[in-house]
Structure formats: structure tokens, C-alpha cells
Design a protein that fits this description.
The chain is of the alpha/beta class. It contains twelve helices and nine strands. Among the domains are: 42 residues, Membrane-bound Lytic Murein Transglycosylase D, Chain A (Roll), CATH 3.10.350; 157 residues, Peptidoglycan recognition protein-like (Lysozyme-like, 3-Layer(aba) Sandwich). The protein is 31% helix and 12% strand. The N terminus is likely disordered. The structure holds zinc ion.
């Protein structure tokens, strides 16, 4: 079994103080319903009861709508783990990089006995990470509820759009209609340059929300194991903006810290599909980013 999903939910609590772009904003401690979600599924995911969800949201039945924002009681600043059959305290402690002693203490346990279905409070490690910027905050919020197989993501690949303007929706349409890609937008994220989306704004693609393969390189193995990030602009002609680069760096740091394999490497498109493309262009700071990340 591959280790899954151990986001530090406390980051959701940190989002309260920043001002988020309206379109992307979800309040901390909330979850936006996606296609296929059920109330009981959401309850299980966040380790709360269906009744608690109902009463926190004033719901009578089980009916929820795609796009509806659900309040998750107890989510603010807290991290819980539901024990699965066969898991021991030491396995759980290792998974969250904490000690067995601190896990015992946080849950008032006298010995190492736990049972499947038990809900354990995970003491939040002092990471020293800064609060996410208003550009990263929506990514953190959207990513908290995803079921991510960290070991899968072994590459982060940067692209330029090769055109001076655009946004995720426009590239999505292009990839569907011209490239005949059923999953649309080939990248997982698009970072705007102030033309058709805000300068530095990180747009989240459906391939990230659905944890789908990318369609951003020719190399099939890298499409299944690489997170694709596209910066709007043609960097054969111009440079990325300061804000685009700040957002890119913050996004990569977040993805590597919370979502990707330990061995995850940063690359640019032309290093993956050698000889086929100049992407992300000569003015993209490839060397500086390699120095920073690899
Ligand atoms: Zn590219």
C-alpha cells in the first residue's frame, strides 16, 4: 500500500488572514463539493461523522450539490488520522514525521494499543513554513481534500505558453478543440502574467483536481509522473514577470513538500523532450531554478 494523503491541515487555518481572489476563495475549514462526492464520503475523508457535517451545515438529508461549500467542523488548525486495520502507532508516527511519544501524549494513550477506526489527533510539527501567499493559498485549500499518491509525482516540469496572453480556460479550450485532448488543459497549473488572468495568479487545472496524467510532454513516462506548470508568455521574446517567478517557486516548494516523492526533480520541457522544443524559452531562468531545486 502506498502512503497517501498526509497534508498538514493546519495550513487551512493559516489561510484565514489572507485576502483571496474571489473566484478561487474557499474559507478555511471548508470543502467544495466535487462531482461524485457524497456526504458520507466527505465525512470519512475528514474524519468526522455525517451528523456533525449535517449539523454544521444545517443540512436535513444527504443531498449536496457540486460546487457547494461545506463547513468541516474541527478542521481549523487540527490534523487527525483515522486508524486503518494493521496500522501501529509507530507506523502512523513515522508517516507524519513525529515521535510515538508525542502521538501518545496528544491522544492521552497509556500504551501502544489502538484500534481500526480510531481517530487520533496528530500533533502539528513545527515546520517553520511561512503562511502561503494569496496566490498559493487557494492551491493549498484545493489540495487539502485530494487523495494524492506522493510516490507517483517524481518530476515537476515548467513550460511557457509560447503566446503572449491567455489563461487556463483559454488553453483548456485550445487543447480540447485543436489538440483533441479529452481531459482538456494539458497542464496541472497555469500561472498568469496579468493579461487574461492576474499577474502571478496560480490557476488550478482539472488534471490536478482529478490527479490525472498530464499531457504536457511527449515522453509518456513523464506525463504519468510529472506535474506540468505553464507560465503564460513567450519567453523566447520576453521574460516572465517577477510575480510569475515568485508564484512558481512557492508552488514548486509546496508541491515538493506536501505532494511529491522525495526524489522529485525539477525540469523544464526541453530537457524532457530533447530536440523537439525550445520551451520554456531562452529568457526563462532555467539555470537559476536548477540551482535552487536540484
Ligand atoms: Zn512546454
Amino acid at each position: 500500500m502506498i502512503p497517501r494523503r498526509h497534508f498538514l491541515r493546519w495550513t487551512a487555518a493559516a489561510l484565514g488572514s489572507v485576502c483571496l481572489p474571489r473566484l478561487w476563495a474557499d474559507e478555511p475549514g471548508t470543502y467544495r463539493v466535487r462531482r461524485g462526492d457524497t456526504l458520507s464520503g466527505i465525512a470519512r475523508r475528514f474524519g468526522v461523522t455525517v451528523d456533525a457535517l449535517r449539523s454544521a451545515n444545517g443540512l436535513r438529508g444527504d443531498r449536496i450539490l457540486v460546487g457547494q461549500v461545506i463547513l468541516i467542523p474541527g478542521l481549523r488548525g487540527e490534523l487527525f488520522h483515522e486508524v486503518r486495520a494493521g496500522e501501529s502507532l509507530s507506523v502512523i508516527a513515522r508517516r507524519y514525521s513525529i515521535t510515538v511519544a508525542s502521538l501518545r501524549e496528544a491522544n492521552g494513550l497509556r500504551d501502544d494499543r489502538i484500534y481500526a477506526g480510531q481517530r487520533l489527533r496528530i500533533p502539528v510539527p513545527q515546520t517553520g513554513h511561512e503562511e502561503p501567499s494569496p496566490f498559493l493559498a487557494p492551491v493549498v485549500a484545493a489540495t487539502i481534500g485530494l487523495d494524492i499518491d506522493r510516490s507517483r509525482w517524481r518530476h515537476i516540469v515548467a513550460h511557457h505558453s509560447a503566446v503572449n496572453r491567455g489563461n487556463a480556460a483559454m488553453y483548456d479550450r485550445f487543447h480540447r478543440e485543436q489538440r483533441r485532448m479529452v481531459n482538456g488543459l494539458a497542464y496541472h497549473f497555469v500561472i498568469g502574467n496579468g493579461t487574461d488572468s492576474g499577474d502571478g495568479v496560480i490557476e488550478i487545472g482539472n488534471r490536478w483536481l482529478g490527479q490525472l496524467d498530464g499531457g504536457h510532454v511527449r515522453n509518456h513516462a513523464v506525463n504519468t509522473s510529472g506535474i506540468g506548470i505553464c507560465l503564460v508568455g513567450n519567453f523566447e521574446e520576453t521574460r516572465p514577470t517577477r510575480r510569475q517567478l515568485d508564484s512558481l517557486i512557492e508552488l514548486i516548494e509546496f508541491l515538493r513538500r506536501e505532494c511529491a516523492a522525495v526524489s522529485c526533480r525539477f525540469a523544464v520541457h526541453r530537457e524532457i523532450d530533447r530536440g523537439h522544443t525550445v520551451c520554456p524559452g531562452r529568457y526563462f531562468p532555467t539555470t537559476a531554478l536548477h540551482r535552487r531545486f536540484n
